[in-house]
Amino acid sequence: MENNDSYNRAKEKVEELKGFYSHLSAYILVNIILATINLVTSPQSLWFYWITLFWGIGILIHAWNTFGHRRILDKNWEERKIKEYMEKENK
Q1: Alpha-carbon gap, residue 38 to 44, rounded angstroms
Q2: Rg (Cα) of the chain, in Å, rounded?
Q3: Where along the chain do its domains lie?
Q4: How far apart (Å, rounded) are the C-alpha atoms in residues 78 and 37?
Q5: Contact at 8 Å (CB) between 38 and 48?
Q6: Per residue of the chain (91 residues), what is the pLDDT tens digit?
Q7: Whole-model pTM?
């Protein structure tokens, strides 16, 4: 039973990572396109950076939710880190 729970948690984390990387890829691609359109059509009036800025804030929040607070604030974080470093040292 625990093996199935472990698999489900791991699968959920992989889905979360996929979601973040998809979001990041779309952000980069769309902002390159918008910057190109802006610089070609009206270089005297830069507007693309507003989209980049505010969407970037959304990316940072998504990154924090994916990578940040759970790993830092989790109760077992310290114990996991100790085990991780011990495993690296024993290799």
Answers
A1: 9
A2: 20
A3: 2-90
A4: 48
A5: yes
A6: 567 888 888 899 899 999 999 999 999 999 999 999 999 999 999 999 999 999 999 999 999 988 877 655 666 777 777 888 888 788 7
A7: 0.70
Contact between 34 and 49 (Cβ < 8 Å):
no
Q: Fill in the amino acid letter for 60.
A: L
Cα 46 from chain centroid (whole Å): 27
CA-CA distance, 51 to 30, in Å (whole number)?
A: 10
CA atoms of 39 and 78, how far apart (whole Å): 48
Q: Which residue has the tokens 């969407």?
A: 55
C-alpha to C-alpha distance for 61 and 63, rounded to whole angstroms: 5
Cβ–Cβ < 8 Å for 27, 55: yes
Q: Output the pLDDT for position 54.
A: 97
Q: Would you give the distance in Å from CA 41 to the centre of its chain?
A: 32
